[in-house]
Amino acid sequence: MKTTIFPGATLQGTLERELPGDKSISHRAALFAAVAEGQSEIRHFQVSGVTRPMLQALTALKVPWSLDGDTLHVTGRGVRGLNAPSFPIDCGNSATTLRLLAGVLAAAGLPAVLEGTPGLKRRPMGRIVAPLQQMGVPISASPDGCAPLRLQGRPADSSLQAQHLLLPVASAQVKSCLLLAGLGCEGTTRIDEPGPSRDHTERMLQSMGVTVCSEVREGIYCVSLCPPRPLELTPLHLNIPGDPSAAAFLIVAALITAGSELCIQNICLNPTRIGLIEVLQEMGGDIEVVNQHIEGGEPCGDLRVRSSHLHGTSVSGERVVRMIDEFPIFAVAAAAAQGESVVSDAAELRLKESDRISVLAKELRILGVQISEKADGFSITAGAFKGGSVDAHGDHRLAMSLLVAGLISSASVTVLGSECSAESFPGFADLLRSLGARLTVEQTL
Ligand code: S3P
Questions:
Q1: In angstroms, how far apart are the furthest CA atoms of the chain?
Q2: What's the CA gap between 170 and 194, in Å, rounded?
Q3: If you measure from the C-alpha of residue 172 to the centroid of ligand 1, how many angstroms do you get, rounded to a whole number?
């Protein structure tokens, strides 16, 4: 599929529930509901390309679930009530599914094979395999340290050995995998990280009756988890807030297009997720946060965004962790801003759905942006987008960012492979159109 977007639009509107529910919270809610005892009801679940594999994994583990629109019902079986899958579980393109599932299967002591798309098989898995092995989990990766992962299973009456682990890189997927494995340990599992990765796992497990404590000690982010005995987790009843990583595309779209104003309601404003909003505000972006409240244990609120003149900025350190998924769209904002922007400490971007530093540089250069690559980031000198044909490289966040760039290009921008935006934001092009953008979508062979 290719989508062509034409410049010159003004975006106006109020989004109540049109934005997908948060992806990270959706993944966790489905999986954690499966290991709770009894019925969970999860409203505004993100039904998308990357959450489907998690739902299919529940089927493979013989956990009943049903979707009524975007309300997910799950009949939890308990950690020890899951069944071993009779075939390899396909995690699709979702590293979150694979890594979190590995943690739950480790706690449950079940044999399983976890695999996925060629893209997922390029993502590093040694970062969960080595610590899981240290906990006593019989797990192995392929010789290159990637999926498929093979878990052997262990006797129902045996426990894993609780560990105190220091992660070399801040990662919510790795932390969550190890905390979930910690449910199968005797005693307290402690995970230390060099940065504030998203903490939805901690918040949700706590709401389910697990003792989880978080603190920052001399710049290190420490979490400890002590499983309840007996190991019974309370089912979930929650309404998932809108995904700030999906909102990011609309926020930047409204900021960079003249005369635009959007109100985006009920977005997750967890401090570990709002690095981009803070950075855009510092760049001069008119983003007002109103109606702040807590819902389902997560800080939420509405955003009012108005078109603004942005200036360049630098992003590094812990900020990077709190906006790790937002760099493709940040780059578009930076290119539209006055002056230079520099991103450092972001080598992790090379290990996402694509090498986000290199593909971003390649495609933005086609649109006339002056961008130079660094090992751990990039720098962008402001310049005008000139339109052209670009490729999404199978990366949903790159696809949507390039479409937003087309809103202010001197000529139309065509994004090849734009269908991948449905991985995390089904209906993105239609929503953009409903707000005032002009675009055409064409099926390609
Ligand atoms: C996620 C964590 C992040 C993020 C991903 C979702 C999660 O990955 O990039 O989109 O839900 O835990 P890392 O933990 O690898 O940084």
A1: 66
A2: 6
A3: 6
Question: How does residue 14 score in pLDDT terms, banded at 50, 70 and 90?
Answer: very high
Query: b or e along 382-405 (b: 16 or more beta carbons within 10 Å of the residue's beta carbon)?
Result: beebebbebbbbbbbbbbbbbbbb
Whether pLDDT at 157 is above 90: no
Say if residues 25 and 404 touch (Cβ distance below 8 Å): no
Closest atom of ligand 1 to CA, residue 351: 15
Tell me the CA–centroid distance for residue 95 and ligand 1, in Å: 8
Residue 8 has a pLDDT of 95
Hey, what are 131's tokens? 């610590």
Pocket lining: 93 vs ligand 1, CB cutoff 6 Å: no
| Pairing status of strand 370-374 against strand 377-381 | antiparallel
Say how far apart CA 413 and CA 425 lie, in whole Å.
19
Whether ligand 1 lies within 6 angstroms of the CB of 171 is answered as yes
Q: Coil, strand, or helix at residue 359?
A: helix
Side chain identity at residue 393, one-letter code = H
Do 262 and 14 meet the contact criterion of CB atoms below 8 Å apart?
yes
Active site residues per annotation: 325
Residue of 54, 171, 199 to test ligand 1 pocket, by largest number of atoms within 8 Å of CB: 171
Q: Tell me the C-alpha distance between 72 and 42, whole Å.
A: 5
Pairing verdict, β 164-166 and 149-152: unpaired
Strand ranges across the sheet with 89-90? 89-90, 111-115, 149-152, 139-140
198 close to ligand 1 (CB < 6 Angstrom): yes
DSSP 169: S
Secondary structure class of 137 (helix, strand, coil): coil
Task: Indicate whether residue 173 lines ligand 1 (CB < 6 A).
Answer: yes
Per-residue tokens: 17: 């529930």
pLDDT in tens, 371-426: 999 999 999 997 789 999 999 999 999 999 999 999 999 999 999 999 999 999 99
> Which of the 8 DSSP states describes residue 142?
-
Q: What is the pLDDT of residues 87-96, one digit of tens each?
A: 999 999 999 9
Distance, in Å, from the CA atom of 32 to the CA atom of 344, rounded to the nearest integer, reads: 35
Q: Average the pLDDT over 48-54 and give the result.
A: 98
Q: Which residue has the tokens 């309370």?
A: 234
What is the Cα–Cα distance from 127 to 125, expressed in whole angstroms?
A: 5
